[in-house]
């Protein structure tokens, strides 16, 4: 799975922590009564606020970026903002299982994009693991898909959100070779939050007047799935290829569906539970054999990445 020298601690453990924390996102969103764009805005602004104590350490890099780097950060931030807007809206229209299962298309889109832009390839075992996970994910949501009304719209919004986050992941992989994790995350979160602020302003959504419970949910979203989820995955892009990082989303339907069953009374069938086990096996296979997933030396992608530095 390495694309750079590994740190001393386990990347796999951090990877698992990231999967667990992002799974809480759908629960917190369903608990909130605020507009989803307002939730996304404060989720990201509060994350930036929590990151400020480390800003002094990175003060030089924060404001000494090239025009190309700013362009990449802006593109990544806008894609992240669109992901939150589309996917979080989908949770208001369809079940957690259906919404999160569509996110499992992300690694496929990222793998295709990685092949196109970075000339990366996956070995047979990785493809087999991905196939198992996707099949299991589809089975989890099969009982919840509804081809009409609000549920269909929710499924479509989740698909748009998946396309946006795949683009965000690919841009992030390109950016992280020349920008530190802190600087990348700080500006991407700020740009995504600001794009949501403009969206809220244009739609006349209130910025204040929310109950303390709502502010608590905004803060939980900033700490749990954003800092320990999105930030962590963006950091892992330095050491793991983009497709492997995006594979984490395949574990999300399992944990999110279990949490939805426990906390939102969205029940799971025996078939869905079995499918969840299949996803975990697929993710394990992908991680286990991911060490063979590398860019060919001297590829055109290497040249592009060196230009970004």
UniProtKB/TrEMBL annotation:
The keyword Membrane applies. The chain crosses the membrane at residues 12-32, 38-58, 70-88, 100-118, 125-145, 151-171, 183-203, 215-237, 244-264, 270-287. Its main location: membrane. It comes from the Bacteria. It is a multi-pass membrane protein. This is DMT family transporter. InterPro entries: AA-Vitamin_Transporters, EamA_dom, EmrE-like. Residues 13-140, 153-287 form the EamA domain. Gene3D superfamilies: 1.10.3730.20.
């Amino acid at each position: 799975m390495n694309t750079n020298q590994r740190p001393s601690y386990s990347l796999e453990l951090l990877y698992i922590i990231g999967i667990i924390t992002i799974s809480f996102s759908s629960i917190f969103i369903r608990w909130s009564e605020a507009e989803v764009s307002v939730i996304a805005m404060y989720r990201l602004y509060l994350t930036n606020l929590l990151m400020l104590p480390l800003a002094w350490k990175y003060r030089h890099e924060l404001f000494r970026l090239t025009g190309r780097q700013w362009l990449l950060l802006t593109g990544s931030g806008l894609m992240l903002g669109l992901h939150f807007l589309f996917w979080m809206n989908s949770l208001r229209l369809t079940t957690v299982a259906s919404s999160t299962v569509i996110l499992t298309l992300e690694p496929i889109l990222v793998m295709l994009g990685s092949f196109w832009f970075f000339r990366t390839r996956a070995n047979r075992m990785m493809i087999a693991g991905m196939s198992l996970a996707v099949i299991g994910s589809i089975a989890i949501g099969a009982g919840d898909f509804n081809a009409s009304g609000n549920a269909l719209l929710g499924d479509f919004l989740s698909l748009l959100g998946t396309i946006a986050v795949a683009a965000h992941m690919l841009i992030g992989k390109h950016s992280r070779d020349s920008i530190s994790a802190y600087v990348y995350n700080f500006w991407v979160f700020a740009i995504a939050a600001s794009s949501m602020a403009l969206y809220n302003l244009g739609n006349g959504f209130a910025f204040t007047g929310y109950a303390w419970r709502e502010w608590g949910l905004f803060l939980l979203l900033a700490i749990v799935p954003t800092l320990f989820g999105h930030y962590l995955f963006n950091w892992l892009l330095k050491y793991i290829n983009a497709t492997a990082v995006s594979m984490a989303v395949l574990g999300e339907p399992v944990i999110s569906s279990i949490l939805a069953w426990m906390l939102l009374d969205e029940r799971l069938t025996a078939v869905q539970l079995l499918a969840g086990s299949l996803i975990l096996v697929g993710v394990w296979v992908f991680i286990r054999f991911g060490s063979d997933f590398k860019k060919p030396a001297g590829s055109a992608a290497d040249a592009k990445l060196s230009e970004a530095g």
